[in-house]
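Notebook, student rotation project (T.W.).
Task set for the rotation: take a protein with a known small-molecule partner, predict the structure of the complex, and write up what can be learned from the model alone. Partner molecule chosen: flavin-adenine dinucleotide. Sequence and SMILES entered below by T.W., checked by me.
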Amino acid sequence: MKSNTFDTIIIGAGMSGGWAAKEFTEKGFKTLLLERGPNVEHINDYPTTNTQPWEFKHRGRLTSKEIEDNPIVSSCYAFREDAKHFFVKDKEHPYGQVKPFDWIRGYQVGGKSIMWARQVQRWSTFDFEGPLRDGYAVDWPIRYRDLEEWYTYVERFVGVSGNKDGLDTLPDGAFLKPWESNVVEDYFSDQVKRHYTDRHVIYGRCAHLTESKQIFVQQGRGLCMSRKICQRGCPLGGYFNVNSTLIPWALKTGNLTLKPNSVVHSVIYDEAKQKAVGVRVIDSETKVSQDYFAKVIFVTASTLNTNLILLNSTSNRFPNGLGNDNGLLGKYIAFHNYRGTINAEYDGFQEFTTEGGKPTSHYIPRFRNVYKQETDFLRGYAAGFGARPMRETNRNGFGDKLKSNLLETKENGMWSINAHMMGETIPKETNQVSIDKEKKDSWGIPQINIDVDYDANDEKMINDFFEQFTEMFTKAGFKNIKINDNHRRPGNDIHEMGGVRMGKDPKTSLLNKWNQLHQCKNVFVSDGACMTSTSTQNPSLTFMAISARAANYAINEIKKGNL
Ligand SMILES: Cc1cc2nc3c(=O)[nH]c(=O)nc-3n(C[C@H](O)[C@H](O)[C@H](O)COP(=O)(O)OP(=O)(O)OC[C@H]3O[C@@H](n4cnc5c(N)ncnc54)[C@H](O)[C@@H]3O)c2cc1C
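Predicted structure of the complex:
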């Protein structure tokens, strides 16, 4: 038992767990980081990172068999020949879909941070006040001011390229310099400024190193060269993933025990001590079960897996899942509505052909219902925006003829314009996950059933996005405007949140303002499961800031003898 005892146990080696591991180990705590998947060592385990396009057997694409076998994960744009090895395949880890839900996962050290799109926008005051003002879900127990210093703390370590835009809807951070925008992105930004006072087209803040600083040199990371193949893992450490930063950093302290291939079955609750004492782990390969013990446990296995672990952590005291006295564990799951896209063409700036090649796009922060309710739907949407020169490629012919036709590819003078919505969805009790009473996975853990869907609010928001962006595009002189509802299934945004929400009242929430389970104070949840509402911004920066804040609170409480 002694060799299996640590100060802290952290479940899941993604961004959320990685931050907790860094904080605990840096401050001298012996920490066990449990990860169900294999290790992925920075550089050594990026098998395709330097593969040239012509070296891929299928030129980067999936085979029709792969698509047929993986209807869920193949719907993710990044599941392609170059990075497919980092994604969970549909048949490997089945789950129940009460309603269609694309659950996109990465089971390995680093989690989904290896393949993510690196967009990192802070939340604002309006986002944390949303549920209280608009009367849905429950009030957040924290506000932007509680997270502000943690955002800065995380950004300084991660490296975030951005502009100081001075917007109250999207607070500025500790930014490295941005890449240049292309001429049409600047043009649209100016046009929107001319026609609207409340709308802004800005550079999308992204987790890439555009400047060298001591902290990045210490991490062993170099500048981003804008290779734009980040999902394969970057040998330069040019973008932020857990493998090149948090894990080696924590290992260097000598206080981290990283255990890959360790599937956490449940958290062990001691009825006599009235607290959690450890976790039950099943070796993913041998299937042998082993218990580990610690004073404090962080459950950061990603939103839905965190829900599953807690639901599966039953005891006499908690027959329905750890901390679940109010029956709300697994409920109020929400996500982001990415269904609306809009495309257009622009015939200006024909003399310019530079796309820019930066590894981020432009961003339009939410402008609907920000200061007051002004539409017949709740909340709003942000949007991504991009423009690139249109090229005409002649793919006719075979052999030499095809080659010479391809070499004639040229810009046709037009620009292709696109924007996609990122809508907030309203957390509802009916959007929930539960554990299956019969079906178990290969490790004897019950399967999760996901029962999550869009609602009328989402449909209205999609229509509003179409109307507003058609108007904005028209005012900018864009032509041939086409709207499209891509009918993406929930989950395909890969921003699932909730189920173990934070709140002020133990009757209506699971976690307090420090991410402790109200009913079991030495268990913390600081990944997406803790989110009370979803805002419109990409959420991972907030998961990291919340994790760093929660870990530092736990550290202080341990030092005071309170945990
Ligand atoms: C293609 C793509 C693009 C994305 N783009 C963006 C973006 O631009 N901006 C943004 O903010 N977010 C983006 N995301 C989402 C982002 O990747 C996630 O929000 C983030 O990685 C979540 O971090 P996490 O640590 O909470 O979860 P994960 O990264 O999923 O890590 C959780 C870890 O826990 C492990 N685990 C699970 N269950 C168990 C168990 N029972 N026992 C032990 N270990 C377990 C998993 O194997 C995993 O390694 C994107 C995701 C993808 C896939």
